[in-house]
Amino acid sequence: MQITITGQHLDLTEALKNHAEEKIGKLDRHFDQVIDARVVLKHAPHENPENTADVTMYAAGHVFHAVSQHADMYRALDLVTEKLESQIDSYKEKRQDRRNDNPSGLAAIAEME
Fold this sequence. Notes:
Blueprint: E1 2-8, H1 14-30, E2 34-43, E3 51-59, E4 62-70, H2 73-101, H3 106-112
Parallel strand pairs: 1-2
Antiparallel strand pairs: 2-3, 3-4
Region (Disordered): 90-113
Protein name: Ribosome hibernation promoting factor
Pfam families: Ribosomal_S30AE (PF02482)
């Protein structure tokens, strides 16, 4: 998975980049069909909370997107990762349910007889 990290109105430190790559990279364990992930970290001092983590993940046939805000940028990354994990799990369950609802192949022929 290719991860692109950009920052708006803040300097991206190596520690922040590494944290984002580590957190988003772990999502690859849950769903191995992710092609690309784009992370946008924003700092807006006039808003409350100030920091926003915006992640868009492109997978085969689906796009996952989540946004999280927190005063601490590291915590915002943690929260957005949790949201994406939840979306991926929900998507996988939905795919599995659909697969089980419409039996095909030899199993469907055996049930008909």
